[in-house]
From TrEMBL:
PANTHER family xrefs: HORMONE-SENSITIVE LIPASE (PTHR23025:SF3), TRIACYLGLYCEROL LIPASE (PTHR23025)
UniProt catalytic activity: 2-(5Z,8Z,11Z,14Z-eicosatetraenoyl)-glycerol + H2O = glycerol + (5Z,8Z,11Z,14Z)-eicosatetraenoate + H(+); a triacylglycerol + H2O = a diacylglycerol + a fatty acid + H(+); 1-(9Z-octadecenoyl)-glycerol + H2O = glycerol + (9Z)-octadecenoate + H(+); 1,2-di-(9Z-octadecenoyl)-glycerol + H2O = 2-(9Z-octadecenoyl)-glycerol + (9Z)-octadecenoate + H(+)
Organism this protein belongs to: Octodon degus
Domain Hormone-sensitive lipase N-terminal residue range list: 50-357
Gene it is expressed from: Lipe
Protein name stated in the entry: Hormone-sensitive lipase
SUPFAM superfamilies, sorted: alpha/beta-Hydrolases
Location relative to the cell: Cell membrane; Cytoplasm, Cytosol; Lipid droplet; Membrane, Caveola
Length: 801
């Protein structure tokens, strides 16, 4: 006789349906809870939220302290006591930051800077704790209350709010130390190093476990969780594989224990970001280049008629000067570090346009499998577009190619109806600065000269780039102005990196919790791009690399030293030749032919001092006050070669007088104790943030002098260089560690009267363009970039007479 609960297949199906129904109800409750937490965040002011959280924490403390001597009850009592303490300590610091945050905005219509972002992130954490505390208070007597699960989540968010309180104190320290209107730390390099050395010891694992991505829009969090599991799994395989060559995409799907144990995942994530070198990140980020994954990404993008990889031969050519088209300047092929070599570009066009299937262009095609060229018979080609977009991809200067960014570029080509070329520049550390700049500038000039082959008349040309690519947009435009050739009609820079010098800022503090841009990873990428990979970085990773990895690293370093040595020798030879010939008149176009790499290498030989940003006296170019009476473009080109220090007046990082006065008055509200704190005394007595258990972070704290070069850090460019830029449109992320780069750059351009716009998107991470098809929010942000480009390509029609 069968039991009533197991009456054959019918009973099994009923049981399965009940389980599915329970899961569905659970998912609906979860979505409602998240929506409620979001409403709390946007409807409650900071003080009301804190008071409500403290009241609930005290109520839960009283309840669990009366539940006997059990371990779970004791830990719940302690965790609510901790929540109460941290909330009360955090609220005054956030109120103080919020009171002056508006002084650092570009304008009242564009609220956004690192201080605002830090306050918003802390509010997100407080809102989650408030929601969880209410849930516990409502369900703690229920027999279905999962005490252990709720305890683990509360402990994770308590750790997060503790670290956020530490970041708020760091932000106060920056506010009290910096000059009015400046978001970046302005102490000398020793103070900067001391500040960062203290900062990098903070515990980070809590932000990579249960709290992963809590500050972002909910649709992003599952993706971040998948990425974090893939990262730690990939890290395990990378560590075991001595050469690193056998690590493949399959490594991303073998992290079962990391998926079920958030605390283990967070600890391993923290170990990886602190200890593995730039070669690991290069390998991990390039996973998207694998054919299977790139094919899956392209399935969700638009279908285009043309997607061809072109190889530009390293041949010099002439370009007309904008000041006098009868005169020309020679555009030499890239030379830095590795000598002349071809430059790869990808042409993407939604329609097959005139010139795009010409024999001249077909001779440049580089095979990468079947062409994405639709040659079916059609009545005629589409006419050449009046516009052209030149795109520089992101990837920290060390990873990815145009193939990684092809999905959203195809959508751009469809929506804008113009050809797009994306430059596959050489990557660091094998090809450090200025190789990428040289290749991008060479490709830009080639595109301007041969736009007819690309399906464009070239009447309007826009530079567009994200992250590192945004940096290259500005430096290519600087170099075009220095050479005297055509400057682009506008720049669209999405979350660009404009300050590569090691300097703290309020938004940089967010790198403590950012799963895509941790501070140590940023530093390793910049170090690799600067060509200054230290011996400490190599020795610290010998265990992870294994014997074969060490041999490969040593060989790479030897080849790099040989290249740099040869370039330095050539630079010295050219400088000596230049000194000998100074007595003779120099033709107008001759100074423009020299490579920026010569100036960059010359700067390495003569450091500009130890101060990092002190009134920005360490700039690498001569100021406009030092220009002679020769044509301006030629003088600018000569200044690129000499790289003398700028005068303080060349750079204006400060607010207009009335705003400066307002901020000085606000800062006077800080207590004398706040102003007198040293880095070690940043925290009030009795507060102790959690420290990392992963050992010291392998991160260079002193910047190489070359990162002060405006062609590496365009934010440090003197005013006369900024005045050569075309209209600039920034699209930044409020929760991006690079936010202050865009805000400060936009403020400087606005102060000079340059046309500039800034849009700050909320609740999205750095790199949202690569996630454009993920959710509604990323699609809207990507569409905003398209609209900015359209503004450049469609200038306002002139009124009829």
């Amino acid at each position: 006789m069968e039991s009533a609960g197991g009456s054959g297949p019918t009973g099994a199906r009923a049981s399965k349906n009940e389980k599915e129904e329970l899961k569905s109800r659970s998912r609906r409750r979860w979505r409602k809870a998240k929506a409620k937490a979001s409403r709390l965040l946007h409807t409650m002011d900071l003080r009301t939220m804190t008071q409500s959280l403290v009241t609930l924490a005290e109520d839960n403390m009283a309840f669990f302290s009366s539940q006997g001597p059990g371990e779970t009850a004791r830990r719940l009592t302690n965790v609510f006591a901790g929540v109460r303490e941290q909330a009360l300590g955090l609220e005054p610091a956030l109120v103080r930051l919020l009171g002056v945050a508006h002084l650092f905005d570009l304008d009242p219509e564009t609220p956004g800077n690192g201080y605002r972002s830090l306050v918003h992130t802390a509010r997100c954490c407080l809102a989650h704790l408030l929601h969880k505390s209410r849930y516990v208070a409502s369900n703690r007597r229920s027999i279905f209350f999962r005490a252990s699960h709720n305890l683990a989540e509360l402990e994770a968010y308590l750790a997060a709010i503790t670290q956020l309180r530490a970041l708020a104190y760091y932000a106060q320290h920056l506010l009290a130390t910096n000059q009015p209107g400046v978001l970046f730390f302005e102490g000398d390099e020793r103070l900067t190093a001391e500040f960062l050395r203290e900062y990098v010891t903070l515990h980070k694992g809590c932000f990579y476990g249960r709290c992963l991505g809590f500050q972002f829009t909910p649709a992003i969090r599952p993706f971040l969780q998948t990425i974090s599991i893939g990262l730690v799994s990939f890290g395990e395989h990378y560590k075991r594989n001595e050469t690193g060559l056998g690590v493949t995409a399959s490594s991303l799907f073998t992290g079962g224990r990391f998926a079920i144990d958030p605390e283990l995942r967070g600890a391993e994530f923290e170990r990886i970001i602190q200890n593995l070198d730039v070669h690991f990140w290069k390998a991990f980020w390039n996973i998207t280049e694998i054919e299977v994954l790139s094919s899956l990404a392209n399935m969700t993008s638009a279908t285009v008629k043309v997607s061809r990889l072109l190889s530009l031969p390293p041949e010099p050519f002439e370009m007309p000067l904008t000041s006098d088209p009868k005169l020309t300047v020679t555009i030499s092929p890239p030379l830095a570090h590795t000598g002349p070599g071809p430059v790869l570009i990808r042409l993407i066009s939604y329609e097959l346009r005139e010139g795009q299937d010409s024999e001249a262009l077909s001779s440049l095609v580089k095979s990468e499998g079947p062409w994405s060229l639709d040659l079916r018979p059609r009545p005629q080609h589409a006419p050449r577009s009046q516009s052209l977009v030149v795109h520089f991809h992101g990837g920290g200067f060390v990873a990815q190619t145009s193939k990684s960014h092809e999905p959203y570029l195809k959508i751009w080509a469809q929506e804008l109806g113009v050809p797009i070329i994306s430059i596959d520049y050489s990557l660091a550390p094998e090809a450090p600065f200025p190789r990428a700049l040289e290749e991008c500038f060479y490709a830009y000039c080639w595109a301007v000269k041969h736009c007819a082959l690309l399906g464009s008349t070239g009447e309007q040309i826009c530079l567009a780039g994200d992250s590192a690519g945004g940096n290259l947009c500005f430096t290519v435009s600087f170099r075009a102005a220095a050479y005297g050739v055509r400057v682009p009609d506008g720049i669209m820079a999405a979350y660009p990196a404009t300050m590569l010098q090691t300097a703290a800022s309020p938004s940089r503090l967010l790198s403590l919790m950012d799963p895509l841009l941790p501070l140590s990873v940023l530093s390793k990428c910049v170090t690799a791009y600067a060509g200054a990979e230290t011996e400490e970085d190599s020795s610290s990773n010998q265990k992870a690399l294994g014997m074969m990895g060490i041999m490969r690293r040593d060989t790479s370093l030897l080849l790099r030293d040989l290249r740099v040595g040869a370039s330095s020798w050539l630079n010295s030879f050219l400088e000596l030749s230049g000194h000998k010939s100074q007595k003779k008149p120099v033709p107008l176009s001759e100074p423009m032919r020299r490579s920026v790499s010569e100036a960059a290498l010359a700067q390495l030989e003569s450091p500009l001092g130890t101060d990092s940003l002190k009134t920005l006296k360490d700039l690498c170019l001569k100021g406009s006050s030092e220009l002679s009476d020769t044509p301006k473009m030629a003088e600018m080109s000569q200044s690129l070669e000499t790289l003398g220090p700028s005068k303080p007046s060349d750079v204006n990082f400060f607010l207009p007088p009335e705003d400066a006065l307002e901020e000085v008055e606000a800062k006077e509200g800080l207590s004398a104790m706040d102003k007198g704190r040293s880095n070690r005394g940043t925290f009030p007595e009795g507060f102790h943030p959690r420290r990392s258990s992963q050992g010291p972070t392998q991160m260079p704290l002193y910047s190489a002098p070359i990162v002060k070069n405006p062609f590496m850090s365009p934010l440090l460019a003197p005013d006369y260089m900024l005045k050569t830029l075309p209209p600039v449109h920034f699209v930044a992320c409020a929760l991006d560690p690079m936010l202050d780069d865009s805000v400060m750059f936009a403020r400087r351009l606005r102060a000079l009267g340059q046309p500039v716009t800034l849009r700050v998107v909320e609740d999205l991470p750095h790199g949202f363009l690569s996630l454009a098809s993920l959710c509604r929010e990323t699609r809207q942000a990507a569409q905003l970039c398209v609209e900015r480009i359209r503004l450049i390509l469609t200038p306002l029609a002139t009124p009829k007479p």
